[in-house]
Every structure is written in C-alpha cells, then in structure tokens.
Design goal:
- The protein is built from twelve helices and two strands; from the N terminus they run ααααββαααααααα.
- By secondary structure, the protein is mostly helical.
- It has two domains: 70 residues, Arc Repressor Mutant, subunit A (Orthogonal Bundle); 160 residues, Four Helix Bundle (Hemerythrin (Met), subunit A).
- A two-stranded antiparallel sheet has the order 1-2.
- α3 packs across α4.
- The longest helix has 36 residues.
Length: 264
C-alpha cells in the first residue's frame, strides 16, 4: 500500500470531535432519566439549586438545560408553592401522526430491536445463571404491577397507566441486565431502553393488550436457571414488539416489513 493510501485509511478511521457544552450533558442526563421512567408525568424534578449541586454545575447551566427540555415538551416550570420543574404528559398521537412517524422511523426502530435481541437475549441467559433472590423479587414486583395494568381495557387506556407501564417495563428489563452481572450488557440494555422511549411513546396511545406477554415466562425461566429458555422467551417477546410496531406502518410499507419468526 502506498504511503498516501495509508494516510487516507488512517484518516478515515478517526472522526471529527465536537466538544459538548455543559448544559447539553445536563439535558442528556435528565432526558435519559425521564425516558427510563425514573420520573413519570406529573413528577417534580429536584429544585434548580439541588440539581446544580447534585450535578456539580452552575445554576445558569441548569437554566439553559431546562429551556431545552421545555422546548422538547418534556418538562414545564410551574409557579407557586406546589410548582417547580414538572415532567409533562406526552400527548396521545392520532393514527395519521403514528403512520407518518413510523414511515420515517421504521428502519431505525428495526435497528433498535435487532440490537435489543443481540443484547437482551444474552443478558437473560446470563441472568438465569447469575441472578439473586433480590433480582427475582424485583422482577416479580414489576410483573405484578404490569399485570394489574393490563387486566382490563379500561386500565390499559388510562393516561396515567401508559407512562407507568413503560416505566415498569423498563425496570423489568433493566433488572435482567443487572442480573446478568455483566456491566457492558447492563449498559447496552439501558441505552436501548432510553432510545426506545421516543419511538414507543410516539406510537402507542394506550397500553397494548399483548404488552405484558412473555414477561411471566421470562421470569419463570430465570427463576428456574434455564438459560436457553430465558433467551428464547426474550427473543419471542422482542419479536412480538416488532410485529406490533409493523402493524402500525402505513399499508404500502407493510408488505416490505420483515417477517417475524414464529413463537418459541
């Protein structure tokens, strides 16, 4: 290889760097906490001075971050004794809005689901071998609450239950990542859950009847220390999510959507 070709290859392997402003890092942390369900609609975030102290930044930086989050429709500042920085409820999308969003984001959602399968099936298998009784208790608690939300159409349609279910669902999967005892897998599960918030939040106006399917089977396999079954049920669960999202694609696009394997 010529010297010029070597230089070109080396240059292509190193990308550009953009230094992030401090307020952008604050925005990312708060946004991530909301996307993972650690703060639900109606919840108040810590006061401005407490956030500044907790995140070791200035109050000016916190104010800049809040302006961005307000612009994204994630939070609002309410005045008065009962006010503060409050997480906003996301509006219910219309069918036209859902189809428009899915038409532009369908491929990206598929990439996220592929990534979930690669990481969460591995995490579930390891969790079956490495979980503790504490992990099982947390998984069971999340499952119990999700089951209650999914019990009736009326409960699934309650606005408050939509955000609550997504938070419980995230907690269930994050606990499996933690139970894998592998920090890289645990981080991958968290990253994907945070990335899934926007797509899922934009396309579901209520909790799908099948949203809680397979959680009990996943938990049972992990409790039985059956790694193969845990991974298999996790794959089935994620593929069912994919199938549900594909059903929301505009009709001309559905014929191009990938087929979903049969259930394990």
């Amino acid at each position: 290889m010529k010297a010029s070709e070597c230089e070109g290859a080396a240059g292509a392997a190193i990308g550009s760097v953009r230094a992030a402003a401090t307020y952008e890092l604050v925005v990312e942390q708060i946004r991530r906490a909301i996307f993972l369900g650690r703060f639900l609609p109606g919840d108040r975030l810590p006061a401005e001075r407490d956030l500044a102290s907790q995140m070791a930044v200035s109050r000016t930086t916190i104010r800049e971050a809040i302006r961005v989050l307000e612009g994204e429709g994630l939070v609002t500042v309410r005045r008065g004794a009962a006010g503060g920085l409050v997480v906003l409820e996301q509006g219910r999308p219309s069918r036209a809005e859902i189809e428009s969003y899915m038409a532009g984001q369908g491929d990206w959602i598929d990439h996220l689901l592929d990534y979930r399968i690669a990481n969460e099936c591995a995490a579930a298998a390891l969790a079956a071998s490495r979980r503790t009784d504490r992990h099982l208790a947390r998984l069971a608690a999340s499952l119990q609450e999700m089951t209650a939300i999914c019990a009736t159409p009326e409960a699934r349609a309650l606005t408050a239950n939509v955000g609550r279910f997504f938070a419980l669902d995230a907690a269930f999967h994050l606990t499996i990542g933690e139970a894998s005892m592998n920090p890289l897998l645990s981080q991958a599960v968290e990253d994907t859950r945070a990335a899934m918030y926007r797509p899922i939040g934009k396309v579901f106006a209520d909790v799908e009847a099948a949203a809680n399917d397979h959680h009990a089977a996943i938990l049972a396999a992990i409790a039985d220390r059956d790694a193969d079954a845990a991974a298999s049920w996790m794959k089935t669960h994620i593929e069912e999510t994919r199938a549900g999202l594909h059903r929301l694609l505009p009709r001309p696009r559905r014929t191009r959507a990938r087929s979903v394997p049969g259930k394990a």
